[in-house]
Amino acid sequence: MLQTFASSISSLLDSRADGHSLPAGLYNREDVFEADVDVFFRKHWICIGLECDVPEPGDANVIEIGNSSLIILRDDDNQIRVVHNVCRHRGSRILDAGSSVVSKLVCPYHQWTYELDGELAYAPHMGADFDKSCKSLRPVSFKSIGGLIYACLSDNPPADIEHLEEVMTERLAPYDIRNTKVAFQTDVVEHGNWKLTMENNRECYHCSANHPELCVSFVDLDFGFDPESLSPEDREQAEQHQALYADKTKSWEADGYPSAAVEQLVDCETNFRTQRLIISGAGESQTPDATAASSKLLGTMTRKDLGDTHLWGHNSWNHFMGDHAVVAIVIPLSADKTLVRTKWLVHKDAVEGVDYDLEKLTNVWVATTDQDAELVARSHAGALDPAYVPGPYSRFSETNLDKFATWYIDRMRAHGY
């Protein structure tokens, strides 16, 4: 049966035309979804959370990816651990989804008890000759990159995450994300396939018509435009913006803040892109008036004019600004449902109502995420329609979607489909 599915999926992959969206079956078929979870959420690096999700020893956070359940925790030595949420006795889940505080990890079924480093400490009624040393909780390969936790469930994690680690360790250092706190979190279930969620995020072709709140601070021209379609006045404005970008990037980098675009989007295993983006208007933050939401800046930041360091991977997108950060993690739930978990980070010592206003902090991306959920649902409904035919990507505004689709197909084929 698996060979039949693989062959069928292979035919779908083969039918994708360059420069066009994916065939409908790659968005809506259950066998494709199962293959996606195995390939992209088990065998590739994925963002699963943040060090600040578990700020103190004994803090634990459970995240579920397909049938896998992972515990992010901080041990007694203040070190981050990631382990499988599977008791080594008979496989019971140890912790429920979400956050908790524990002194030890105790399986509720038969009370097998583990230290916070995963070592089995107590296994009642197993006999004096039982060897506890080989029954520690199974560890998960992970990396903390500037305070972002990436995990890979494979025994052979892709080595090219080293490039992401090298680039982002330097870029994230001034923000000191490890010493932030989650001021607010939302979980939005989008009624669409995870690839449509990611495609929607990788272009701003739709922004001016659908994201009025975001466009106060976000410049849609940054994501491409067709110069022939612009009026002479708009073309002049676009050219001035491009010149400003070049000047800003040069100035930021001269001041020691890496800013130029770095991307690893095709011919790779670990997919990412980063760039320091200009913030429009007041130029400080992604808020309703583009001014900073928090008076207590992140990390060692002393300036509010350093734009938005954006980073995306194949299951996340992030925006790091002087006053706060927005981190979104994408988790596929089914072929037609996707969880988008968004976290707003502020300095760990920032006080709500004193240093920041929560409504101002969250307004833009709460609205934008809800708007995107509606757009993804519309896209998925269209992909289910028998009339759906893959359409052409804009060569000006959707080049990154074409790269994502190309990468997706290449990685599926690399894993036997």
From TrEMBL:
| InterPro entries for this protein | Rieske_2Fe-2S, Rieske_2Fe-2S_sf, Ring_hydroxy_dOase_asu_C_dom, Rng_hydr_dOase-A
Report whether Iron shows up as a keyword of the record: yes
What are the protein's UniProt keywords? Answer: 2Fe-2S, Dioxygenase, Iron, Iron-sulfur, Metal-binding, Oxidoreductase, Plasmid
What CDD domains does the record point to? RHO_alpha_C_GbcA-like, Rieske_RO_Alpha_N
Q: What SUPFAM superfamilies does its record include? A: Bet v1-like (SSF55961), ISP domain (SSF50022)
Instruction: Indicate whether Oxidoreductase appears among the record's keywords.
Output: yes
Any single Pfam family the record assigns to this protein: Ring_hydroxyl_A
Q: What's one GO MF term for it? A: iron ion binding
Q: Where is the Rieske domain?
A: 45-151
The coenzyme or cofactor needed here is: Fe cation
What is the designated name of this protein? Ring-hydroxylating dioxygenase protein
Where does this protein come from, organism-wise? Answer: Rhizobium gallicum bv. gallicum R602sp
